[in-house]
Amino acid sequence: MRLKDKVVIVTGSCTGIGKAIAIRCVAEGGKVVVHGRDGAREQGEAIVKALGADKAVLHIEDITFEGAPQRLVATAVNKFGRLDAIVNNAAMIVSSDVHTTDLPLFRSIMEANLMAPFAIIQAALPHLSNARGSVLNIGSVNAWSGEPNLFGYSVSKGALMTLSRNLGDTLHREMGIRVNQLNVGWVLTEKEAERKKAQGLAEDWYKDLPRVYAPAGRLLKPEEIAAAAVYWLADESGPISGQVVELEQHPLIGRNPPKN
C-alpha cells in the first residue's frame, strides 16, 4: 500500500494513461478524483463504480473553463477531506504543423496543456503544502523537439517540462511540495488506436511495428506508465523534485542507428 490514504487528483482519467494511473492509485491504497470532459461521463462513472464510491469520485468539466481548477480541487477536499497529490495528465493532442497552426489553435493547445495544469497546481497549493504533497506532470518525449505534424502539442510539452523543473525547485524549497514529470513515449491507448485507424492504418496496425520505433516489438502499455507514476506520488521517492524522466523503449540521444 504505497499510497495508503493519499488523495490524488488525476486529470484526464476516464481513458488511457490517466485511467490506468487512477486504478493503480486505488490499488496502492489511495483515493482518487477521476476527471474527464463531458463526452467521457459514462466512462468515468463506470470507473468510479468499479473502484468504489468510498475510494473514487467523478468530476466532469473542461479544465480550461474559468474556475475549473478551483472546482476540481474542491471536489477532492469536499469528498475526502484532504489533497495529497495531483497528476496533470489531461492534454489536447491535435495534428498540426507550422503551416496549419494558426494563433487561435496554438493558444487553445497551450491553454489546455500548460496553463490549465499550472492553474490546478496553483489552486491546490494550500492543501499540497499541508500534506507536503507532490505533483506529477505527464509530458511527452515530443517535448525535446517533436514531430513536424505535432507542432503545437510538442511545444506545449516542452513548456510543461520547464514548468516542472522551475516549480520543482521553487515549491520544494518554499512549501515542501515536490514536482516531477514523466515524458512518455509511444503508448497504446484507446485514443491512439483510434487516431491511427483514422489515418488509414489497418485495424491491427500495432501488431507489426518497425523495430526502429518499437525495439520490443510492441508499444508501451498505460499500466506500465501507471506503475512508474506510483513511485513519484509515493513517499518512497523521498525529497526528489524538479526531475524529468523519459519512459521510452529506446534512448532519445546517442541512439545507435538500426542496421538494415
Ordered list of secondary-structure elements with their pairings:
Blueprint: E1 7-10, H1 16-27, E2 31-36, H2 41-51, E3 56-60, H3 68-80, E4 85-88, H4 103-131, E5 134-140, H5 151-175, E6 178-184, H6 190-198, H7 222-233, E7 244-247
Parallel strand pairs: 1-2, 1-4, 2-3, 4-5, 5-6, 6-7
InterPro entries: NAD(P)-bd_dom_sf (IPR036291), Sc_DH/Rdtase_CS (IPR020904), SDR_fam (IPR002347)
Protein name: SDR family oxidoreductase
Word description of this protein:
The protein has 260 residues and is α/β, with parallel strands linked by helices. The chain folds into two domains: 7-185 and 221-247, Rossmann fold, CATH 3.40.50.720; 187-219, no CATH class. Helices cover 43% and strands 14% of the residues. The chain has helices at residues 16-27, 41-51, 68-80, 103-131, 151-175, 190-198, 222-233; strands at residues 7-10, 31-36, 56-60, 85-88, 134-140, 178-184, 244-247. The chain has a seven-stranded parallel beta sheet, with helices on both faces. Helix 3 runs parallel beside helix 4. The longest helix is centred in the middle third of the chain and has 29 residues, at 103-131. The protein starts with 6 loop residues before the first strand and ends in a 13-residue tail after the last strand. The model has no long low-confidence stretch (mean pLDDT 95). InterPro entries: NAD(P)-bd_dom_sf, Sc_DH/Rdtase_CS, SDR_fam. This is SDR family oxidoreductase. Pfam families: adh_short_C2.
